Every structure is written in C-alpha cells, then in structure tokens.
Amino acid sequence: LDDLGTASWSALNMLMSSAGIMCLKQKMKINAFVDSISTYFLRPVQFDSFIALKTDIFDMGRNFCKVQVD
After folding, report:
1. Under 8 Å CB-to-CB from 2, ≥6 apart: which residues?
2. 3-state DSSP assignment of residue 69
3. Residues pairing with 66 in the sheet
4. What backbone torsions phi and psi does residue 58 show, to the nearest 5 degrees?
C-alpha cells in the first residue's frame, strides 16, 4: 500500500495475471505462464475493497492463448 492506502500497480497486475492463469487451468486443463501483459486502464483500489475479476478466453492457438481480464 502507498501513502494514500491504495494497492500498488504491480500487485494489481499480479492479481490479474493469476486470474488469467487460473482461468486457463480450470477451463482448458493446461499449464500456462504469462509471457506479456497489456494493461489499458487500471485505477487505484482502496484497502479492504471488494475486487471482482471476470476472465474470458478470446483467442487460442497451438502455442498461444489470449485471455481478457475485466
């Protein structure tokens, strides 16, 4: 947490990447890792706030998979 009581950007990115990996493990039964992540919009979250993440697999090939986390 920073001085304002908000979670750091890296902690929120880690939460989003973990949600994407869990989505792939549950739906497709594959073991994956994050190679790159693109964050378009991220706003600060106060401590003790409820965070709801929605994941969606929108592109999948033989060697790659794209997961959207909202």
Report:
1. 8
2. strand
3. 59
4. -115, -5
- Distance (Å, rounded) from C-alpha 36 to C-alpha 38? 7
Could you count the other beta carbons within 10 Å of the beta carbon of residue 67?
A: 22
Count CB neighbours of 35 within 10 A: 6
pLDDT attached to residue 60: 87
Instruction: Answer yes or no: is pLDDT of 61 > 80.
Output: yes
Q: How many residues does the chain have?
A: 70
pLDDT tens per residue, range 6-58? 667 777 888 889 999 999 899 888 888 888 888 877 777 777 788 898 999 98
How many CA within 13 A on the CB side of residue 7? 17
- Rounded to 10 degrees, what is the CA torsion of 32, 57, 68, 45? -80
Pairwise CA distance, residues 35 & 51, whole Å: 24
